[in-house]
Amino acid sequence: MKQITKSKKIMILIAIIILIAGIAITIVKGLNFDLKYQETQSVQLYIGEKFNEADIRQITNEILPNQAVMLEKVEIYQDTVIITAKEITEEQKNNLVTKINEKYETDLKAEEIQITNIPHTRLRDIMLPYVVPFVIAVVIVLIYMGVRYYKLGVGKVLAQTIGLLILTQALLFSVIAIARIPIGRLTIPMVLMVYMLTLIGITTKMEKQLANKKQEENKKEEK
Question: Domain 39-118 has what CATH class?
């Protein structure tokens, strides 16, 4: 039976620690989501003309200090802005309306503008559109791996491939949880990057094993 080297034991130990820490932090604190996916509040303000986003940002920095704010231009002529933040009080809404009126000489009435509550987006809802393409890609890869490396044992090859793909993705989300990396537009690219790097590592290892297997077979034939 092949012995596990000291370096591999250390790597396994580190992986276990990362997984346990990631699970613990996820249970206790949950994952950290981008503002776009958090439970937030927003107000929609009709300015009536194209506006400079930097000017609106300056106003929100003054009225909504020490919190992330997302600005979105809407309508065909981009003359309306949606201001989204973790929390917007009635007083802050009134101050936003006042500042916008002063800046753009509009006649917005605070009492006519509602604060909209936006619910939290769950991780599974973010990932759902990518599940089917990802599963199809994994199935195609598994078929290829089974055909390409059948001499190494189809069951062994598939088990190692599936196991490593699951492990690396679990480690990725553990690191995301530990480092409090926001779940957002970069999450899917990170998942795909780890997926590709894992496949490269697996195929590199399998190619070496296959080459060694062929050498052994050739030596036996020569004898």
Answer: alpha beta
